[in-house]
Amino acid sequence: MKFSQVAVFATIVTTTVGFDPSSITRRQPSMALGTFDLKRRQKFNKILKEVRVNPTKEVVEKTLLNDDTSDLIKKCNWKLRKAMIRKVNKMAREFGGEVEDGFGIPLTQEDWEAKKRQEKVSYLAVKKAKLEATAEAEKQRKEKKSAKKAKKAANMASIEGKIKKSKLKEESTETATKPVVIESTNNDVEEVSKSVEAREVTVLMIKEENGAKMVGFTRIAVGEGIKKKEDNFAEEVAQMAGKTNEEEADNQTSSEVALESTVDEPGIDIEESKTVEAREVTVLMIKELREETGAGMMDCKRALVENNGDDEAARDYLRMKGLAKADKKASRVASEGKIVVAKKENKSVMVEVNCETDFVARDTLFTSFANSVATAALEVESEEISSLTSAEIDGSTIEDSRQALVAKIGENIQVRRFVCREGAGNNIGSYVHMDRIGVMVEIEGGSEDLAESIAMHVAAMNPLYAVPEDVPGDVVEKEREILKAQALESGKPPEIVDKMIEGRIRKYLEEICLVSQTYVRTNDRTVGKLLEENGAKMVGFTRIAVGEGIKKKEDNFAEEVAPDENGAKMVGFTRIAVGEGIKKKEDNFAEEVAQMTSGN
């Protein structure tokens, strides 16, 4: 029993002393290599086993002395390879097989390089042969194409000769017609006879030349047989603007009376008066006046009739009529529109032009007018709206252009307001969101891009003031009173209430002042910190929105359906609205701006 315990202890000690952890790491590569050689050796032994099952010369040469076995031996290490080659030679001698030179022996570096060079030479030779074959095929194709062209040209020359002979024959019999010469192409004859007989001869000759037989043909043309409507603008205008027989008779009578009254007056030419009277309502005059003024066709006709064909007087008449329309529509509420920004050197302006509907706000005529107003505002010194409307654009005042646009579009259009910023040495950035919110930011230092980025923030967050110093004292005091009343209701001591009020006032100022708001594009710093990092200082900003402060007309459906004076009684009604009950997507403007742009 004692001997067994001693033996076990000695075994444990010797195993622990002999254990070397680093030996595992050192043996790992050889173990991995031995594993692969073991698999190859197993595969080789399997081949030998197959040979021993039927040991004949044919089996040895087919199974053992092949390229696969040679490649298998080449991949083994030199020691295992040597043993495998010895077994192969022994078995080959035993069954009368012949082992090729170099069987199972890998190539040396020099032999491998020589083999690769030989393969490259062979590859280049094959490639060259392919290129030569391709070139020869292309040459044959071109020769075939040239021969085909020559044959075609000979056929066409033969046809031309036969046509000329046919023409000479027709001329001799005095029945030929004059040929029509057309521009020739590679596939057409230069001269083709117009006569039926000549064409028949040509087709027959072509058929005989090509061994073809005519079966028939079908020809159609787009719109063939369909009676088309012919637009005649002059007739349409004449029909719309033409006078009735009675009006023509009255005009003729008045014309004759007018001519008779001017016979005895000196300086009046009767023939000239007749010419003016004849031009009174011509289609051309109506069309020109319509193109110049943009008014309706019947309005142009009526203006020319009222002014005896005088173009200038007719234009004045239409302008007066447009003024009347503008005055009539001035009472309508114009709460839609767009905001336009213009800049010139160190001056920027922002203009709000209003209309009645958003459809007109997207119209090209309205947009062009708003852009013209913004451009004209750059040249206006005063900030009064009257000075802007009296400014000239394209040869007429803004007010005249507005009235003409009202007459043309049919909606109330107003130039509501404009603001400008002009600071020498300061950077002014502007941003307009969806043509409905406009912002101009002026900073000292920094860059124009920085000012534009802050303008995006102002458009999204709508701060009331730029810096705390801009907040009026009465606004702060009113907020202080409200906060004090709220704090006293909590029942806390007065000294605690005063501290609470001061803290809430600071928070209130941070919320309504631009420089203390969190910058919406990055959400990691305030606008004031952003200005400080870029060496800039806030000067001020201006923010306006379309229709801001305009009281819109509210439709009262209950009053419209109330019982009338005739004693009508409501029985019931059904009301549905477009999109009722459908959950709409809520737009978050602040998130949109943050996603559209990356932070500075």
Task: Give the averaged pLDDT, no decimals.
Answer: 76
Radius of gyration: 51 Å
Q: How do the strands of the widest beta sheet line up side by side? A: 3-4-7
Helix content: 55-70%
What does the largest sheet look like? 3 strands, antiparallel
**Intertermini distance:** 86 Å
Shape: flat
Number of strands: 10
Structural class: mainly alpha
Runs with pLDDT <50, length 5+? 15-33, 175-201, 243-249, 251-278
User: In what range is the share of β-strand residues?
Assistant: 5-15%
Number of helices: 23
Description:
By secondary structure, the protein is mainly alpha-helical. The chain is built from 23 helices and ten strands. It has helices at residues 2-18, 21-53, 57-64, 67-74, 78-95, 109-173, 196-210, 233-241, 245-261, 270-278, 283-293, 297-306, 311-329, 358-361, 364-377, 385-389, 398-409, 448-461, 473-488, 494-512, 527-533, 557-560, 589-596, and strands at 180-181, 191-192, 336-344, 347-355, 392-393, 396-397, 414-422, 427-433, 437-445, 536-545. It has a three-stranded antiparallel sheet with strand order 3-4-7. Strands 8-9-10 form a three-stranded antiparallel sheet. A two-stranded antiparallel ribbon has the order 1-2. The protein starts with a helix and ends with a helix.
